[in-house]
Specification:
10 strands, seven-stranded mixed β-sheet, 274 residues
Length: 274
Amino acid sequence: MRQAVRITAVLAAGGMAVVALTTSSNAQPTNDQSIQASAARPATAAADDHTDTVYVTGKAKDGTVSVTIYDPAKGVTPDQLREKLRRSGVTGVLAKGQQPPTAQPGQKQDKLLECLSYGSAREWCDHRWSYGSFRDPQVYFLDHTSSAWPVTNAVNDWYQAVGIDAYYRWYTAGCPGGTHCVNVYNGGYGATGWYGLTTWSPGTQGPVTVQLNDSYPLNANEHRTIACHELGHALSLAHNVSTSSCLYSGTYISLRPNGDDYNILPRIYPLSGT
């Protein structure tokens, strides 16, 4: 856990804004019109390609609803990705601007959470890790990937953040008790317009799944950027609007988070009890 000296410095910076009021699986997307019609929120103002997020809703056999962020391949717009996903048989693809469910069916939301932004960084609304018995949420990334994907380096970058603790483990070691798990996989998922995706069920504490697509010829820097990007989603961050961040959408330039990514996390996750 990174302590109060860094937190004091980070919180001294300005720029935080509240952009919405909301709250915080591994399920494959399935076609469920009731999810899209009743649980999804109305469309909002159109966003440009770097803030427009491609959401897909799914429903597991036990009724658990999942939300997946699909991140487009280079040169593929969000609208093109939506169409490619539909043509490839993916169901539950939300329309541009349509927001995904905020909770599980029938789940009571105790209170509404502020959905935060800071500078160029944005929170993934309705997706926050709990603290458990720790001062910071403890998130373990369980690596199932090949050596082509620098998951270790990406985790080390996110470990520098104040407010949440990110740890690397090879998947066979599992998660320690009382912590959160993110399983990171790679595979040949097809050249259907996306480089990576992150799946999380709103209103739950995971597990969260990251999938990294081997179906495109990518260089080492692109692998690094995409891994950093998807792990950022798994820590509750949405797309960053600056090219200085690995969370910038659609164009994979920066290998690492930027200062605003680091600054927003202690606001999402202030020290427990404060």
